[in-house]
Amino acid sequence: MALTRIFGIAALAGLAALSATAPVRAETDDAGAASGATSRRASFTLVMENDKLNGTDEWYTSGVKLIFSKPAPAPAFVFAPLVAANSWIFGQAGRSRWELALGQNIYEPADESLNPPDPKDRPYAGWLYLSALAVSENRYAQNTLEVQAGVVGPSALGEQIQDITHNLIGSNKSQGWDEQLSDEPGLLIGLSRRWRTPPLELTRSIGIDLVPHVNAAIGNVQTYAGAGALLRLGNKLDADFGLPRVRPAGSAPVPVIRRGAGWYVFTGFEGWASARDVFLDGNTFEDSPNVDKKTLVGEFNVGFVVYAIGMRFNATYVKRSEEFEAQPHAFEYGSAALTFNF
């Protein structure tokens, strides 16, 4: 599709547009918000997920997301209606923020040397998208509403980006990209709700809390519903509701960065029931490579978060259960995110 290929190239070009966005001061936060100039600034976040971080190269092999986040008020186009819809759905007063993101996911089978690929293995696929997200939160609860629009297939530039990456790190070229999913426009809407328990103080500066969540997404790319929780130990527990990730509706939004340093460690679990996954089920409107997906999938994670003045970094080890019937074992990947105010 010429139009979707044009969209793919234009979306990558959006990186430059995001980088050129100028900071604008925000409205005053509510009583549950942090004080200080850093909590009222815009921020950039880079999220990277890759199986190479755990020494593998199979299935979900790469996810990258660049996020621009800013407190309300939101721009009139797209974001203001999204913020209003988020407030209407959840009916919760509190601080509001919005996010604009550009992301790309890459999927491939376990054996990259086969051409044609193993028909029983996950097909090659790329997903390039733009995302708009509205956040509403108070001290102990957070709601998000997200819309993602993009393209699956050759126009997502998965083959080209993977070839560049493999050349840089000295890996062999994947041979089966000619059999990837065909071009298909993608649209999905995601909702999430998170709660944060009051921390249990272990010492004067260290506490422990629990952040349970529920989420759901609907669209031709992915449709699922899930739930999970994070158990956290540290001294910066009121700074966020969890981790920015690449998955729609499974990710906490970019946190507000407050003054001072801090840290916490965490472990968590999430499970979801999948009704639709284009990367496993294949193209929606035409025949394509596909596998028999599993309806129920689970994911375990463990990691740490560090806050410094105007910056936040988190690193996560993730182990996900089998996603399709012929998948021989669970797989692992690493996730890292860096946020900075400006």
Core attributes:
342 residues, mainly beta, Lipocalin, globular
Q: Which architecture per CATH?
A: Beta Barrel
Flag low-confidence runs: 1-38
CATH class, named Mainly Beta
Global structural class = mainly beta
Based on CA atoms alone, the radius of gyration comes out at 20 Å
- N-to-C CA distance: 39 Å
Which sequence of SSEs, written as H and E, runs from N to C?
HEEHEEEHEEEEEHEEE
Task: Give a count of the beta strands, DSSP E runs of length 2 or more.
Answer: 13
Q: What's the main sheet like? A: 12 strands, antiparallel, barrel
Q: What is the count of helical runs?
A: 4
Residue fraction in strands = 35-45%
For this structure, the CATH topology is: Lipocalin
Report the average pLDDT across residues.
85
The geometry reads as globular
Number of domains: 1
Arrangement of strands in the largest sheet: 1-2-3-4-5-6-8-9-10-11-12-13
Determine the fraction of residues in helical runs and give it as a percent range: 10-25%
- CATH homologous superfamily assignment: Outer membrane protein
